[in-house]
Amino acid sequence: MGTSFIGGRGAQWVRELNERHPWSHNDYFHSWILANLPDRRGCAVDMGCGRGGLVRALAPHFDQVSGADRDSEMRRIAEITSADVHNVSISDRQLDSWADDSIDLVTLVAVLHHLDIDDALRHVERILAPGGRVLIVGLAPPRSVRDLLWDAVSIVTNPLIGFLHRPWPSPVTAPPAPFPVKDPVVGFDEIKDMVDKLLPGAKMQHRIGFRHTIEWTKPGARR
């Protein structure tokens, strides 16, 4: 969770409140992904699949779902939690390993800022089949007034969503294996410039939870 709009005591207060009423900022967007699936649903790839929550959510909607993560501990957990789902596979494959025009859905949830963004978007365009779709949930540091205003909205809504998900403070428990963390360094407008160039017609917008989304459908219809 980002708190770059405020610092010091304010940021500490937001962190402590979120710890008492936690919710997953990334899992929150799974419903957005499920509401925007492509028409053809042969193969889906979730890059940076983490513990596998999204691959399991996608499994009923696709013939095959591949979850990929560089982190061995994340893969181990995803393999265990997805062991009973027959059409899910977990690996350390990267975007450059899939064939051209072979994938119907690519998802990247809080992953794009870990990659070379320009290179990743080029591979997404390449591997998607005509009519295939990419759905991205991303992070970017605030650089403009608009970015800062959206951070402010996220700061206000963050505890409200936490209260709705967990109205009573959560007990202190052993935390799950942490996700690999990297601070985003490329701003929203700079990412949008790359998206507009490489995925023309893509829809990119700010969201709550200190996130933004990118949605693009590859032109053409698969034969």
Give start-end ranges of low-pLDDT stretches: 1-8
* Radius of gyration, in angstroms, nearest whole number: 18 Å
Q: In this structure, how is the largest beta sheet organized? A: 7 strands, mixed
The pLDDT mean sits at 86
Task: Assign a percent range to the helix content.
Answer: 25-40%
For the secondary structure, the number of strands is 7
N→C terminal distance: 42 Å
What is the number of helices?
Answer: 7
Adjacency order of strands in the biggest sheet:
3-2-1-4-5-7-6
SSE pattern, N- to C-terminal = HHEHEHEEHEHHEE
Gross morphology is: globular
Strand coverage percent: 15-25%
Instruction: Specify the structural class.
Output: alpha/beta
Summarize this entry quickly.
This protein is 35% helix and 20% strand. It has 7 helices and 7 strands, in the order H-H-E-H-E-H-E-E-H-E-H-H-E-E. The longest helix has 21 residues, at 145-165.
